[in-house]
Write a structure and sequence with these properties.
The protein has helices at residues 2-18, 28-38, 45-58, 83-90, 94-107, 121-129, 142-155, 167-177, 192-203, 221-231, and strands spanning 63-68, 77-82, 111-115, 134-139, 160-164, 181-186, 206-215, 238-241, 245-249, 257-260. It is of the alpha/beta class. The strands form two sheets. It has an eight-stranded mixed sheet, with helices on both faces. A two-stranded antiparallel ribbon has the order 1-2. Helix 2 (28-38) packs across helix 5, helix 3 (45-58) packs antiparallel against helix 6 (121-129) and helix 9 runs parallel beside helix 10 (221-231).
């Protein structure tokens, strides 16, 4: 644990000193992203309603079942945790949730897919960014999905659909039903192989304007390897490393470039 924290600090310092601001970016496409999306810290009215739900969840001491799908050959391991403790650690902090809002607000994706709903906070931010779009959010833990459903209902949101079940079952099924996807946020299975597998599945239904966001790209050595592989993936043209998140563009018209942007 300590070693991991130490290496994360080292990774962050490395990121901090190699990252650049908008004035060092020569691509108009990325300059616009940095200027209008990444550096724009305006608080929107929509955030207030969502943050009210986060506050409620962070104070909820009710115990729920949490299924750990990564428990190896022993199958699934179920533990009990309070809603409050999960909300404090799993819900996207405002800094990053609002970034997701600005990304969907900027690109206006019609069909959005999120892997890893947790309690629905990030889903609400992304859906609020483009109310004319539709967000399909996948969650493996049934109790979390139910709590997300009530948090979403409390805000009056109508453009989010929660899909319960393991990603490896629900994602291929969902992609069969969708004509194409415009945006995907991959957050929920922090391992190298599944991350790359989901990307390859999503790619089949994507087009040149599709935007991909990967969460926790510096979370572990496995996720760092996954990010390196994504940067070298034949379909990937431009990547933006924001330390906690990575943005991937596949538009073949963009010149191949990997950016590290300070956020």
């Amino acid at each position: 644990e300590e070693m991991n924290r130490f290496s994360q600090v080292a990774d962050y310092l490395n990121y901090y000193f190699t990252s650049v601001n908008r004035h060092s970016v020569h691509s108009p496409f990325i300059y616009t992203l940095v200027d209008k999306v990444i550096n724009n810290r305006k608080k929107e009215v929509a955030f207030k309603v969502i943050e009210k739900q986060r506050k409620r969840l962070k104070n909820d001491q009710q115990l729920i079942d949490v299924i750990d799908f990564g428990a190896g050959t022993k199958g699934e391991k179920i533990t009990k945790r309070t809603i409050a403790s999960i909300a404090k650690t799993s819900a996207k902090p405002v800094k990053y949730a609002s970034l997701l809002y600005r990304i969907t607000c900027h690109y206006k994706p019609k069909i959005m897919v999120e892997l890893g709903t947790s309690f629905g906070i990030s889903a609400l931010y992304q859906a609020a960014g483009n109310p004319d779009g539709k967000l399909y959010t996948l969650e493996g833990n049934p109790s979390s999905a139910d709590i997300a459903a009530s948090a979403i209902a409390n805000t009056g949101n109508t453009n989010i659909q929660i899909i319960k079940g393991k990603f490896q079952d629900t994602l291929p099924q969902l992609l069969k039903e969708l004509p194409s996807i415009d945006y995907a946020f991959i957050d929920g299975h922090h391992q190298k192989l599944p991350t790359l597998e989901y990307f390859n599945l999503l790619l089949r239904k994507s087009h040149k304007e599709t935007v991909f966001i990967f969460d926790d790209i510096n979370w572990s050595s496995e996720m760092k390897e996954a990010w390196t592989e994504l940067k070298n993936h034949p379909s990937v043209r431009v990547t933006v490393d924001l330390f906690m998140m990575g943005i991937v563009y596949i538009n073949p018209e963009l010149s191949k470039q990997d950016y590290i942007i300070r956020y």
